[in-house]
UniProtKB/TrEMBL annotation:
Residue numbers binding ATP: 37
Signal peptide location: none
Domain Protein kinase: residue ranges: 8-267
Protein name: mitogen-activated protein kinase kinase
Family, as annotated: Belongs to the protein kinase superfamily. STE Ser/Thr protein kinase family. MAP kinase kinase subfamily.
Length: 295
């Protein structure tokens, strides 16, 4: 079915990113609660139409590790993307203090790997924006990816305008000049770097290249390119260290692929043991609800 603006009631703001706002919304005809992302862009109508057409292939990208796509449309200079609402939220809101339960971390890494693998193998899509805010959790304990670079026109339109202060870009992408050129050179290996950085951030509870410790964004980006890659603290297992270190190799050609990482000892260790993601997700939902009431 096709969704349009008149059928949607905005319920609450879920968050703001560098180029958009995400709302929790009700789709009246179906009664489905969804997340609607609004991206403001100054583009020709023809480009908007192309973006909507390109986004359409998301209807085919169904997987337990990818957020469901319901439809997209444009109104007055904005693209609206309607997707599955993930009630526990994004990882950046859940890792406060760091996730030290390696079972949980390993399951999250596995889910992200499966999502990335499906995108690449079944749809020939490279994510391009793997980071904690794009890894979402629901109260069933499912982990799903969102915001991948499915529309070339959309990727090109927003990368012109954005450079955030937390870069998950791999060193080789920073060197070629990020945004513009990066569109041509993006590889699966660049997503693997971002995955490593994401897992590390969730484990330690903060972005691994803290903005405060650099005098400028330039200095921070130089550290990613020229410095030693960041590491897990010693309290984590040797398997966890190995997984993260393999992802965070500065030479992209020696980073492992999805298949190798999916069968890494740190991943396999917890695939065969009970990790109660459902209880973990529920506990997070409850503590966030409690926090909201106090405020
Ligand atoms: P960037 O703009 O750099 O991509 P971002 O990912 O934080 O950063 P948005 O994609 O606009 O920005 O998302 C804003 C916030 O909305 C996210 O941080 C996330 O917490 C929330 N969010 C996004 N999509 C959903 C969803 N499907 N369900 C629930 N919450 C969501
Ligand atoms: Mg996002």
């Amino acid at each position: 079915f096709r969704i349009n603006m008149s059928e949607i009631i905005k319920l609450a703001e879920l968050g703001k990113g560098n180029y958009g706002v995400v709302y929790k919304a009700l789709h009246r005809p179906s009664g489905v609660t969804m997340a609607v992302k609004e991206i403001r862009l100054s583009l020709e109508e023809a480009t908007f139409n192309q973006i909507i057409m390109e986004l359409d292939i998301l209807h085919k990208a169904t997987s337990p590790y990818i957020v469901d796509f319901y439809g997209a449309f444009f109104v007055e200079g904005s693209v609206f993307i309607c997707m599955e609402y993930m009630d526990v939220g994004s990882m950046d809101k859940l890792y406060v203090g760091g996730i030290t339960d390696e079972g949980v971390l390993s399951r999250i890494a596995y889910a992200v790997l499966q999502g990335l693998k499906t995108l690449k193998e079944e749809h020939n899509i490279i994510h391009r924006d793997v980071k904690p805010t794009n890894v979402l959790v629901n109260s069933s304990g499912q982990i799903k990816l969102c915001d991948f670079g499915v529309s070339g026109n959309l990727v090109a339109s927003i990368s012109k305008t954005n450079i955030g202060c937390q870069s998950y870009m791999a060193p080789e992408r920073i060197r070629v000049g990020g945004g513009g050129n990066g569109v041509l050179t993006y590889t699966v290996q660049a997503d693997i770097w971002s995955l490593g950085l994401t897992i590390l951030e969730m484990a330690i509870g903060c972005y691994p290249y803290p903005p405060d410790s650099y005098t400028s964004i330039f200095a921070q980006l130089s550290a990613i390119c020229d410095g030693e890659p960041p590491r897990l603290p010693s309290c984590f297992s040797s398997e966890a260290h190995d997984f993260v270190n393999r992802c965070l190799q500065k030479n992209p050609s020696v980073r492992p692929g999805y298949q190798e990482l999916s069968t890494h000892p740190w991943i396999l260790k917890y695939q065969n043991s009970d990790v109660d993601m459902h209880t973990w997700a529920k506990a997070n939902l409850e503590s966030r609800a409690a926090g909201n009431i106090e405020r």
